[in-house]
Write a structure and sequence with these properties.
single chain, 105 residues, mainly alpha, 79% helix, elongated, transferase, HPT_dom_sf, Histidine kinase, kinase activity
Protein backbone atom coordinates (compact mmCIF):
# COMPACT_ATOMS: atom_id res chain seq x y z
CA UNK A 1 0.00 0.00 0.00
CA UNK A 2 1.13 3.51 -0.78
CA UNK A 3 2.59 5.50 2.07
CA UNK A 4 1.46 9.07 2.73
CA UNK A 5 4.23 11.62 2.31
CA UNK A 6 4.90 15.33 2.41
CA UNK A 7 6.36 15.77 -1.09
CA UNK A 8 3.46 17.87 -2.36
CA UNK A 9 3.28 19.84 0.90
CA UNK A 10 7.02 20.53 0.62
CA UNK A 11 6.62 21.81 -2.92
CA UNK A 12 3.67 24.01 -1.91
CA UNK A 13 5.52 25.48 1.04
CA UNK A 14 8.60 26.33 -1.02
CA UNK A 15 10.87 25.81 1.97
CA UNK A 16 8.76 27.96 4.31
CA UNK A 17 8.62 25.72 7.38
CA UNK A 18 5.96 27.83 9.12
CA UNK A 19 3.66 27.57 6.09
CA UNK A 20 4.37 23.84 5.81
CA UNK A 21 3.40 23.37 9.46
CA UNK A 22 0.19 25.36 8.94
CA UNK A 23 -0.77 23.06 6.06
CA UNK A 24 -0.07 19.98 8.16
CA UNK A 25 -2.03 21.43 11.09
CA UNK A 26 -5.05 22.10 8.86
CA UNK A 27 -4.96 18.54 7.55
CA UNK A 28 -4.57 17.13 11.07
CA UNK A 29 -7.59 19.15 12.22
CA UNK A 30 -9.91 18.66 9.24
CA UNK A 31 -9.16 15.05 8.26
CA UNK A 32 -10.54 13.34 11.40
CA UNK A 33 -13.67 15.52 11.30
CA UNK A 34 -14.31 14.81 7.62
CA UNK A 35 -13.63 11.10 8.12
CA UNK A 36 -16.10 10.93 11.00
CA UNK A 37 -18.82 12.66 8.96
CA UNK A 38 -18.16 10.26 6.06
CA UNK A 39 -18.63 7.21 8.32
CA UNK A 40 -21.74 8.74 9.87
CA UNK A 41 -23.33 9.30 6.47
CA UNK A 42 -22.23 5.93 5.14
CA UNK A 43 -23.58 4.06 8.16
CA UNK A 44 -26.88 5.93 7.75
CA UNK A 45 -26.88 4.66 4.13
CA UNK A 46 -26.93 8.25 2.91
CA UNK A 47 -24.64 7.47 0.00
CA UNK A 48 -25.08 10.81 -1.78
CA UNK A 49 -23.79 12.70 1.28
CA UNK A 50 -21.08 10.08 1.78
CA UNK A 51 -19.99 10.73 -1.83
CA UNK A 52 -19.71 14.44 -0.97
CA UNK A 53 -17.57 13.50 2.02
CA UNK A 54 -15.34 11.32 -0.15
CA UNK A 55 -15.01 14.26 -2.55
CA UNK A 56 -13.61 16.41 0.26
CA UNK A 57 -11.38 13.64 1.60
CA UNK A 58 -9.88 12.85 -1.80
CA UNK A 59 -8.20 16.24 -1.88
CA UNK A 60 -6.35 15.43 1.34
CA UNK A 61 -5.48 12.02 -0.10
CA UNK A 62 -3.92 13.82 -3.06
CA UNK A 63 -2.09 16.36 -0.91
CA UNK A 64 -0.54 13.49 1.03
CA UNK A 65 0.90 12.05 -2.18
CA UNK A 66 -1.36 9.01 -2.53
CA UNK A 67 -1.82 8.87 -6.30
CA UNK A 68 -3.37 5.39 -6.40
CA UNK A 69 -5.43 6.27 -3.33
CA UNK A 70 -6.76 9.32 -5.15
CA UNK A 71 -7.83 7.15 -8.07
CA UNK A 72 -9.62 4.78 -5.68
CA UNK A 73 -11.36 7.76 -4.05
CA UNK A 74 -12.54 9.09 -7.43
CA UNK A 75 -13.96 5.70 -8.42
CA UNK A 76 -15.51 5.15 -4.98
CA UNK A 77 -17.13 8.59 -5.04
CA UNK A 78 -18.73 7.73 -8.38
CA UNK A 79 -19.84 4.34 -7.02
CA UNK A 80 -21.53 5.98 -4.04
CA UNK A 81 -23.34 8.43 -6.31
CA UNK A 82 -24.72 5.39 -8.14
CA UNK A 83 -25.66 3.72 -4.83
CA UNK A 84 -22.86 1.13 -4.95
CA UNK A 85 -20.48 0.49 -2.05
CA UNK A 86 -17.86 -1.20 -4.22
CA UNK A 87 -14.34 -0.07 -3.16
CA UNK A 88 -15.43 0.74 0.42
CA UNK A 89 -12.83 -1.59 1.94
CA UNK A 90 -10.05 -0.11 -0.18
CA UNK A 91 -11.14 3.45 0.63
CA UNK A 92 -11.41 2.71 4.35
CA UNK A 93 -7.90 1.20 4.29
CA UNK A 94 -6.60 4.46 2.77
CA UNK A 95 -8.31 6.44 5.54
CA UNK A 96 -6.76 4.18 8.19
CA UNK A 97 -3.34 4.56 6.55
CA UNK A 98 -3.66 8.36 6.64
CA UNK A 99 -4.91 8.34 10.23
CA UNK A 100 -1.85 6.38 11.35
CA UNK A 101 0.46 8.66 9.37
CA UNK A 102 -1.05 11.85 10.83
CA UNK A 103 -0.68 10.47 14.34
CA UNK A 104 3.02 9.85 13.70
CA UNK A 105 3.99 13.23 12.25
Amino acid sequence: MEKPNQSYINSLSGGDSAFKQKLIDVIKKEFPEEKEIYFKNFNAKNFKLAADNVHKLKHKISILGLEKGYDVAVAYENNLIEGSTTLKEEFDAILNNITTYLEEI
